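Standup notes
- HV: blocked on the assembly model, inputs below
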Amino acid sequence: MAKSDVKKVVLAYSGGLDTSIILKWLQTTYGCEVVTFTADLGQGEELEPARQKALLLGIKPENIFIEDLREEFVRDYVFPMFRANAVYEGQYLLGTSIARPLIGKKQIEIAEKVGADAVCHGATGKGNDQVRFELAYYALKPDVKVIAPWREWDLTSRTKLIEFAEKHQIPIAKDKRGDAPFSTDANLLHTSSEGKVLEDPSQDVPDYVFSRTVSPETAPDKATVITVDFERGDATAVDGVKLSPAALLAKLNDLGRINGIGRLDLVENRYVGMKSRGMYETPGGTILLAAHRGIESITLDRGAAHLKDELMPKYAELVYNGFWFAPEREMLQAAIDKSQEFVTGRVRLKLYKGNVTVIGRESPYSLYDQELVTFEEGAVAYDQHDAQGFIKLNALRLRTLGQRRKKTGI
Amino acid sequence: MAKSDVKKVVLAYSGGLDTSIILKWLQTTYGCEVVTFTADLGQGEELEPARQKALLLGIKPENIFIEDLREEFVRDYVFPMFRANAVYEGQYLLGTSIARPLIGKKQIEIAEKVGADAVCHGATGKGNDQVRFELAYYALKPDVKVIAPWREWDLTSRTKLIEFAEKHQIPIAKDKRGDAPFSTDANLLHTSSEGKVLEDPSQDVPDYVFSRTVSPETAPDKATVITVDFERGDATAVDGVKLSPAALLAKLNDLGRINGIGRLDLVENRYVGMKSRGMYETPGGTILLAAHRGIESITLDRGAAHLKDELMPKYAELVYNGFWFAPEREMLQAAIDKSQEFVTGRVRLKLYKGNVTVIGRESPYSLYDQELVTFEEGAVAYDQHDAQGFIKLNALRLRTLGQRRKKTGI
Amino acid sequence: MAKSDVKKVVLAYSGGLDTSIILKWLQTTYGCEVVTFTADLGQGEELEPARQKALLLGIKPENIFIEDLREEFVRDYVFPMFRANAVYEGQYLLGTSIARPLIGKKQIEIAEKVGADAVCHGATGKGNDQVRFELAYYALKPDVKVIAPWREWDLTSRTKLIEFAEKHQIPIAKDKRGDAPFSTDANLLHTSSEGKVLEDPSQDVPDYVFSRTVSPETAPDKATVITVDFERGDATAVDGVKLSPAALLAKLNDLGRINGIGRLDLVENRYVGMKSRGMYETPGGTILLAAHRGIESITLDRGAAHLKDELMPKYAELVYNGFWFAPEREMLQAAIDKSQEFVTGRVRLKLYKGNVTVIGRESPYSLYDQELVTFEEGAVAYDQHDAQGFIKLNALRLRTLGQRRKKTGI
Amino acid sequence: MAKSDVKKVVLAYSGGLDTSIILKWLQTTYGCEVVTFTADLGQGEELEPARQKALLLGIKPENIFIEDLREEFVRDYVFPMFRANAVYEGQYLLGTSIARPLIGKKQIEIAEKVGADAVCHGATGKGNDQVRFELAYYALKPDVKVIAPWREWDLTSRTKLIEFAEKHQIPIAKDKRGDAPFSTDANLLHTSSEGKVLEDPSQDVPDYVFSRTVSPETAPDKATVITVDFERGDATAVDGVKLSPAALLAKLNDLGRINGIGRLDLVENRYVGMKSRGMYETPGGTILLAAHRGIESITLDRGAAHLKDELMPKYAELVYNGFWFAPEREMLQAAIDKSQEFVTGRVRLKLYKGNVTVIGRESPYSLYDQELVTFEEGAVAYDQHDAQGFIKLNALRLRTLGQRRKKTGI
């Protein structure tokens, strides 16, 4: 778009070198007012330095927005997604994907508040995050202008970036001068790493890439047994202690971290069309998924459970691709949430050197009825003789097919 | 059916006490000729004793059929199912489900050969196996008579069974006199256990129930790294050594067993309508699934991979419910097999105390293209500027929705 | 079940010969108190004669329940189903299927009110309706006893039925003595016919079978143009006149009937396993479906519309099979209902000799934006140049596949 | 791309004004050699004039390719698609969508043959066809250069186009000087019309837009009864006369046309993100779909039929979006084709003033078994008493849910 078109832009600002360069680039290239938004999603970094740095780079105090989104993130994004048991391509717990819509939503809210006409993010032009940010922007503010510096500027190498930073007096941490051996994204749900040293999928992930979990090998030799309580599909307590959503996930993260849980080395298919190799650490989320499936196993009806399993891949794909604010995601969520009314109870789990094992489940709403399964006769609701009719009618169409085969000799 | 209607019956005969009682009960109740069929599916038991016992119980030598089905089982049943990455209710690898159709098919083949009009199995009236056996029978021989003793007889307690056995001079092993604390099923793919001591889903599985794997705790402190080779979706070699399907699965079982891999404690939904709690040990299968997903991750296109993920729950449900010989399973198999043409290559895995981790994958048909992902500019096929158009057209309908929301104020 | 077990039974009673025989058979066989329930679902029959006949057959006045369910039927069953555009096997509008759960529910409500322990229906042992009734019964009153006379009694021929009726002084209309050439079911949504003269699927449906519509040939030579208004997915007015749900459907039935609309000759797959041939007349429903798709076409987002289309076959199958009160049907309904918030507006349709054609649609919530489609340049939201990026990223994986094909020569 | 990069381009050339302008524009803008490809897909136009015009515009004779693709089109594209009963958004028979991949494939074949490095089409930048062409190009020749003039040039109004034509001595038919009131696409399967006079979806389609069918009103007052024969899912004969695929579709088109069959007025969702309103005439295809469903109704098993219905929306979406040469379309095709082995037989249909009604079906492979459906007792394979067990086991989980509701009072 024409550079002069932008009046005021809300930038997703981490305080790091790259988004600081973007900040300055916006000022110099677009000549527009820059509003920074820095969010705490549990990435484990202080937020105040971001404020100081923004001030240093000439942002007016009233244009600096800093917000702790941890509770909202877990309550309104992570938990609804875990109700779906969402897993992308059989394995990825969508830790990055689920955070982007929330950041995008907040940027738009700030844009509406301060009268900004544009938003800007620091995602590259090859990844999924640009899509996730921008679909959120466009869905919530259809007339917004979107600036994606990595797709626009000519700072196409580390050298050029550093030159630009130096030219504009942007402080550069010593370890940021050279290319990073990999890039990361972190929030309360996970840390992801990708790029450079991870790019050869035939090679193991180097040890130094992991930051969020100990290795199974160095985890304690003794298992940790915990309980997780659920109410209507959401976790509410660990070891009997009620916790807020964010506190609960943080607690599970601690438990997962020390027990070497939640590492994933994956080659995945990006929405923009290529394969990429990533490494994910999702300690608490890995426990949460196992626990949720555990409590569902006794409280969810088969019809509901199987429908959920059938819908899940599409749900996960939508989240991965950035369609959180799309009607079809909301429709699937409505179906999923409908199923969670009685997903209440307690799951006991064993954590041991990378393993999460459900070892017990109980619920006031359990559908598991020992009477029905006992091998001895006596239960009222199940009559073994019914099985014959059940089988024979289910077999009828197969028998008809068999007769056709016999009759036609094919 | 009228007892006099049955002339000759093919019994799935293990040689154990229960099927020996059934054998005798068929003779005394139906007055029919009994043909026994004993199969080696890798359950780890000698077959000759079954022959001796059948002879002892009066079966004519020409009516005793014993067959080693291990290769056919893995090649034509286990492998096709693993091409689908089939997992029932998110977790169960279908070890029992996949064996029943093959046994059923062999019984029908023998029935056709010896001119039998009936078949008989030893599955209970409360489980899934009766359905799986009988759907196979009916699909392959629509006019067959099916005898399911557990649904028919009055031997409704252990005491009555033992009395019947004693009355008919059936040898009774000492440990078979009382009720078993749990029942098991085993084949080359897995061992399942259920019943009695496992019936309370809030209680952990007792140690003595496990028979096929060591516990993660007692597994070696040092990881085992292996490679698995695939050709067109099927595993063909371990550590570079070509193996037949059954030998390969046996090899993976060994590797899994010593590393504490493949235990599963699950509450599942049976096809006959109730929940049950089972414990599964699938050491080799657990490795195989991880390896197969690993090789698919670099050789399978996204469209194919996602379609497979969407179809999988239905495929798994069909196998679980016993519809192996149904047209819809065959249709899904055709789709799945179509996708496996280039699923060829080598996966490296780390086995460690219950964990299976893919740590490397390579293939002559890899779709993973480092050039496309590299953060530096230069790749030919991917132009970052294309991302803008991609996002904007994907966003168009969301923007239109946003405009409606704004316009209507809802 | 033991005949003496039943104390009081609620019978779905039409007042016709067959259910009168059932009534008497219940009294004589089970020796139990019989409560009759006769519902008006718009089948077009007087209800008072049913009361008189019940009295005549010895039912106590307080045990006779007669209810006009037409509004509830259309509002809570037909309309929710039409929100889904539900069509079974590509063609059948589920007119019979959707009525059974409501009748079942009412029987259970009466059973709870009068303290009955059993319910009874007059559906045959070969059809779907027995399943639909009984799944509703069991879902809503899990301990209920179900009596299905057609599966139990020995009145297995028309002759025996007539004998039984004569013996018990049940009035027999002259035309009921012999076998009917076909059987019918009717309600406000449709009339179905099956059996005897329809059993050869290679033969055309005889003219005298149709009762609810004129033939296209005899319909007027001039088209009727109407409008149907919708609010949140439900039809609310015809030709601008607000109507209650039942009145609206009745109005559409009239319009459909005179224009020869809604006849269907179908071979379908029953849930109990065989194929059957039926003839359906759904005049108003056929118009309603076309109109609903018409209003959705401008008010529903593509993502929502396509998800609905993907879910529909499963939804229709659930309704057909009788799983109205199953959690998975309710989950799908939640998803569908979520999509209908803006399905509001007016559709214009032309009715002509069997054809229903949407010829206009308008809505305050229309997502159809002429600016976006116009071939000339100028629209703001759509930039033609975006199409290139859109296509290139969508093509990326296909190009990668093409490169592999070229490289490997396969 | 840089204009000088293109050496030789294969243009999809109709011989009409627009593609003639493109031809000349390619020569003048890219300075490259132009190869024309003109295909007969049954659009009903002579091909020789295209050759003459190409010569006139300076194309070398050896660079002019003209091919009759009608048989290939119907046999390898239309028929496979009809095996799937593919319908987009519940109504559209995909007549335009299915032709594009074939044209694209032929252009690529010619490009390979003549050593061209680029291909070019005349589709606009707002429609689906650009996507369909280009996905085919890229899938089959990943390194091809694609020229889409409508997205590139500055001839953005009719006036400019005419000026360009005049300047380059391109003959202009009198009626092509002004804007067309609508645009059309035609092939053996259908004619589509869109734009201008059709852009207001609240207004009826003007009579003069229809070109391929008479209106139901002007169709004969007497019905035409025909038979269509199928072999393995494909139509092979009409009224008992064997016909090649293209001849058969042409025959059905004639029958449909005179009987006013196959008109559709639709607002649809384009892949590029907006809604558009189109009018389609698919006379033969409409008959073919009805006939195919008719023969499937007696030859296809329920499991296969329902799986087909569930997969169909995704299949149709893939075809609509242009993913014909994508692995997931091929996987679905494999599943669908697998189901068609016995879809053989004869369907009788009545064509009358816009209606297509199946009135009879017969097949040597019919699964319809009158014995099974007859209301009188006697059939062997179906025992009414089996229905009880069938229902009770299907009801078991619903009863368990009911008990939970009762127990918990929720």
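- HV (later): unblocked. Confidence is low (pLDDT under 50) at residues 375-379 of chain D. The interface with chain A takes residues 301-303, 341-342, 364-365, 367, 369, 372, 381-383, 385-390, 392-394, 396-397, 399-401, 404, 408, 410 of chain D (CB under 8 Å).
- Next: hand off to the docking folks.
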